[in-house]
Amino acid sequence: MSFEAAVTFFVSIFIFAITPGPGVFAILAKAMVEGPKKCIMMALGMVASDLLYLQLACFGLATIADNWSDIFLIIRYLGAGYLIYLGYKMITAFTHNQPISNQQKSQQTPLTSFSHGFLISASNPKVILFYVSFLPTFIDLTRLHGSDLILISVLSSIALMTAIMLVAYGASRLANVIKTPIAQQRLNKTAGSIMIAAGAYLAVNK
Q: What SS3 state is found at 98?
């Protein structure tokens, strides 16, 4: 892969990562309530899931989406249900108009956050279709070398992580403008509603 192709590939993956979808909405909602630092492990989980789909696409296993369609359907519904559950928890996180404490916010372990991010991204098997149609523009998949696979994996990881964390940082900066408990409660409800909408979109969108 030439330098120009590598740069184009990086920019394309970055744009793909910030395109609105269930993963972006999940990070957006979490960052609005808990801040960007709490999104790092979730973002890593999402990147790991995307890289898995990337590997599948590189090794010509795209037909898995057809052969294992029932499994993908179950995964998609599990992810959608989880997003809706997270949205509900956000909406009901306030009691007596008091915001949730920092201690309550940090009850999730890093491994749990990572797993949640992986599940959310894995729930969207359409990602593999993107890579299948996108990768041949830059690489001949019939002559794939180990160095090519390492390069596109590194570029994808950096582009995805940068894009996701920029979304998280921007959402957190916007949320920090709102300071009053009532405003924070409304923010939590808005974030929860976004998460529920993302889950519903994932469930009904084929």
A: strand
**Collapsed DSSP state (helix, strand, coil) of residue 95:** strand
The answer to whether residues 93 and 32 touch, using CB atoms and an 8 Å cutoff, is no
Asked if residues 151 and 6 have their Cβ atoms less than 8 Å apart, the reply is yes
Query: Where do we find the tokens 């890289």?
Result: 51
**Angle 146-176/22-34 helices, nearest 10 degrees?**
40
Q: What tokens does 168 get?
A: 């998280």
pTM given for the model: 0.69
Tell me what pLDDT residue 41 has.
94
> How many CB atoms within 10 Å of residue 166?
15
Residue 144 confidence (pLDDT) above 70: no
Q: State the pLDDT confidence band at 98, using cuts at 50, 70 and 90.
A: very low
Q: Each residue of 147-203: pLDDT tens digit? A: 778 888 999 999 999 999 999 998 888 776 665 566 666 666 776 787 687 677 767
H or E element at residue 69: helix 69-91
Q: Which long-range contacts (CB under 8 A, 24 or more apart) does 150-158 make?
A: 151/1, 151/6, 152/1, 152/9, 152/54, 152/58, 153/51, 153/54, 153/55, 155/6, 155/9, 155/10, 155/13, 156/13, 156/47, 156/50, 156/51, 156/54, 157/47, 157/51, 158/10
